[in-house]
């Protein structure tokens, strides 16, 4: 089976003054391509640290991390930046939209970094805004949109470059229950369209229910992994 993510015996230690704090200890995990995987744990469990390692935002103290067959722990900062631009999309809890830019400009940012011509990237961004139901908000700035609308813009930005993997860190943490369901359905639908791997980080078990695989993180190690057999069964019928 082809894996989007292969993690082997990863350990992450932070130095706080003269003390060493073990954030992750002996983590090994494989995530198949096209799967929805949820890292579930309470605050301080290590789940966000694990996401940061997979996304190339931090480096492990020990162990290996392969993303789409590439050993990212060996990359320097320039290669990591290029890797993230090409292979990774992010959806954030706090939206992380640039307030001075319109929705269209925010969505097209990843394509700007890739050097795509303006007309092509604006066309692609407009297509994604249409897909998330916000085409008429293309010229609006974040302050002119609701939280749910801003998160939809963030989702469009994460998917516009069609990266193989999308990371979503507490993507519905600032949303009400109705908007949460709508946003989750949207993220899942967009990932499925392009067979993208989706990795969710959350403390919320109701969000974990959307995943094919749930990885329970506790005190820096994997406590257990559950496969959602009912979801697989439904998709294969």
TrEMBL record:
CDD domains: ABC_MJ0796_LolCDE_FtsE (cd03255)
Listed name of the protein: Macrolide ABC transporter ATP-binding protein
GO cellular component, one term: membrane protein complex
Domain ABC transporter: 5-236
A Pfam family per the record: ABC_tran
PANTHER family recorded: IMPORT ATP-BINDING PROTEIN (PTHR24220)
UniProt organism field: Geosporobacter ferrireducens
Keywords, in A-Z order: ATP-binding, Nucleotide-binding, Transport
SUPFAM superfamilies to which the protein is assigned, alphabetical: P-loop containing nucleoside triphosphate hydrolases
UniProt GO molecular function: ATP binding; ATP hydrolysis activity; transmembrane transporter activity
């Amino acid at each position: 089976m082809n894996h989007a993510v292969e993690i082997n015996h990863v350990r992450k230690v932070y130095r706080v003054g003269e003390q060493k704090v073990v954030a992750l200890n002996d983590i090994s995990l494989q995530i198949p391509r096209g799967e929805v995987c949820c890292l579930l744990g309470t605050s301080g469990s290590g789940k966000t640290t694990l996401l940061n390692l997979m996304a190339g935002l931090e480096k492990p103290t020990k162990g290996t991390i392969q993303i789409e067959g590439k050993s990212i722990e060996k990359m320097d900062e320039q290669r990591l930046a290029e890797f993230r631009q090409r292979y990774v999309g992010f959806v954030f809890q706090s939206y992380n939209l640039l307030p001075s830019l319109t929705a269209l400009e925010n969505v097209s940012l990843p394509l700007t970094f890739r050097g795509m011509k303006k007309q092509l990237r604006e066309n692609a961004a407009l297509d994604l805004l249409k897909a998330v139901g916000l085409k008429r908000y293309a010229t609006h700035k974040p302050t002119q949109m609701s939280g749910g609308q801003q998160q939809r813009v963030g989702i469009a930005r994460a998917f516009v470059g069609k990266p193989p993997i999308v990371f979503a860190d507490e993507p519905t943490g600032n949303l009400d229950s109705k908007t949460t369901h709508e946003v989750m359905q949207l993220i899942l639908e967009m990932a499925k369209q392009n067979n993208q791997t989706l990795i969710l980080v959350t403390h919320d078990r109701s969000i974990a229910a959307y995943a094919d695989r749930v990885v329970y993180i506790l005190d820096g190690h994997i406590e257990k992994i559950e496969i959602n057999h009912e979801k697989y069964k439904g998709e294969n019928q």
